[in-house]
Amino acid sequence: MTSLRSLREAIDTSDEASVAEYSGRCRAILMALGVDTDTRVEHVLARRLAALHAFLHGLLAQATRIADLDDVLEIIEFQRDAWREAVVLLRRNDAGTSSIEIEA
Fold first, then answer.
1. Is position 98 within any domain?
2. By percentage, how much of the chain surpasses pLDDT 70?
3. What is the 3-state composition of the chain as percent helix, strand, coil, each rounded to the nearest 5?
């Protein structure tokens, strides 16, 4: 998230070196998220997350203006908040003693 915000700032200030640096960092993070998704438990969900990260990677690779990054930032923030909520729910369920249904 920090790298994405730094990329937005670099684009805004036309700092080409920083644009290249932060764009590369963001793309590497999205690529890792897509590749490192564990498919052993929820195969369909894992595939969808990998596809989402690949889509965001493509948007990021084509971004040339701050407005181009708005969708990427919105989706990443939504995803971050969803994972935080999932962690809270899991902790409430006594470290996994109850199962949580994931809608596909």
1. no
2. 89
3. 75, 0, 25
